[in-house]
Amino acid sequence: MLRLPCPSKQLSSAQIHPLALFAILDAYTRRSEGTTRVIGTLLGRKVDSVGSSEKSVEITNAFAIPYKEMDGKLAMGKEFQTNMLALHQKVCKNEVVLGWFSASSDGEMIVDSSSLVQAHYASIVADSQDAIHLVVDTSLKSDSLSLAAYVCTPLEACGHQLCNMFQEIKLTTAFTDSEKIFVDSLVKTNNVEGSPVGVGSNDESPDNVTSLESSLAKLSDLLERAGKYMDDVAEGKVEANNEVGRRIADAIGEMPNIPPEVFDKLFNSNLQDMLSVMYLSDLTKTQLAISEKLTKTLTLS
Fold this sequence. Notes:
This protein has helices spanning 18-29, 78-91, 114-122, 177-188, 208-234, 242-254, 260-300; strands at residues 2-3, 10-16, 37-48, 54-65, 67-70, 73-76, 96-104, 132-137, 146-157, 160-173.
């Protein structure tokens, strides 16, 4: 007799944040030469709805893990995954392993080795049935990324497991306030052809410094308009508006009372820290690229 698991409170939907998606795409673009597929770990938190029989998860981050597939067998870098997870949880203690992702350009959502990887992550996730599998199709056949999320259900007959059934669940995109600002800025700083502004873009395209200058100019204009309005009200030129006054008072109340010299010192210090982090990040990427080239050269020799 074929037996299906009891449909108790099970995972029915998932949300993915832009940071996790960018991490997956970055891992795909940095894949080894000749590789068409990358896999990795999904991190985030569970979202339980009070009084509902459904569960949801929120995918907030991801990292790739090395693997090798040969003759129907799959070898994964479990030690690498353990070390990466330990380092990540030192920074984000509230994030746990939710499942795994795969990104490929062949358009195939589920492959033969998917069950093997799913079994590994089911042993890590607290509830094995909640281990989520996220698939990212990078073929761009429809000029857009295709995303799909699955949960795995084992099918049993006479007490023996026959196969695994991957069932698609609802997948939506979620944004925090900071992520929304970043994505909006990313969209606005695209040039006419649609390629993102950055290394290799033409000199006429706006860069980060230009965007910051534009934001500061807009802020300065708003402050001047608010100051002129308050002067006109004080001089009786304009009738006072209580709603506008409350909004101005709220905006002023949100501003920290910091002397200009202290603000300059904090700003310059944070700017130097950010530039140092960017430099170290670029240096690390360069060292990883050199290490990968040396590894390939030694392997071929």
